[in-house]
Amino acid sequence: MLLTVDVGNTNIVLGLWSGDTLVGDWRMRTDARITADELALTVRGLLGPHADAVTGISALSTVPAVLRELRVMLARYYARIPKIVVEPGVRTGVALLVDNPKEVGADRLVNTLAAHHLHSTACVVVDFGTSTNVDAISARGEFLGGAFAPGIEISVDALALRAAALRKVELVPPRSVIGKNTVECLQSGILYGFAGQVDGLVRRIVRELAPGGTEPVAVLATGGLAPLVIGESETITDHVPELTLLGLRLVYERNTRA
Predict the structure, then answer these.
(1) Any known ligand binding at 85?
(2) Is the pTM higher than 0.90?
(3) Keyword annotations for this protein (predicted)?
């Protein structure tokens, strides 16, 4: 079985694949102070009875401190199995049509690969994580760039910190867009505000990808916070929570294929 490991700024997501089938996935909090031994112990605990069935690993990390410990863990605990860490030099088949390809995060790269694998058209990937990333992909699978916006949790935390009369609230839809109390006003602004922000960015990107609407464009949502917004979005066409894990699987297959 192939273990895929996606280390993000907020969460570490594990996915276990048997061929093309995602057998299971797990999520843990990212801690920049975690050691290789702690990481190995947690991973093994989450995998449970599947821990000894791992025959390959594909991983990425957007957190440098954890990337260092991830490498140590792989070398110490998984020395005898094939493994790939997505970084410059790893074959992905994705052309990066941006000013500085080295700036493109590994997560955006593998998301591009996975989106192109799922769709033969141009794509927009909206990744709801610590930041909200909206990335553009050509019909040939080229990474064209995108836009960043503050993530939902960052925005909520900042609002609660800077506004004395406001606080963190449960992120669920209010009774109506017009909030009747402080909690509903916050919920409305967060949910519908972020949906409107995403729709606005997506529409502008789609107009550049397909001027005049001549070509279809798939809009995929992924990331841990996607379920909060996708129900209110008017532009998202697909919810693919395992998109990054799929991309990691595809990178592994590309680099280990005989």
Answers:
(1) no
(2) yes
(3) ATP-binding, Coenzyme A biosynthesis, Cytoplasm, Kinase, Metal-binding, Nucleotide-binding, Potassium, Transferase
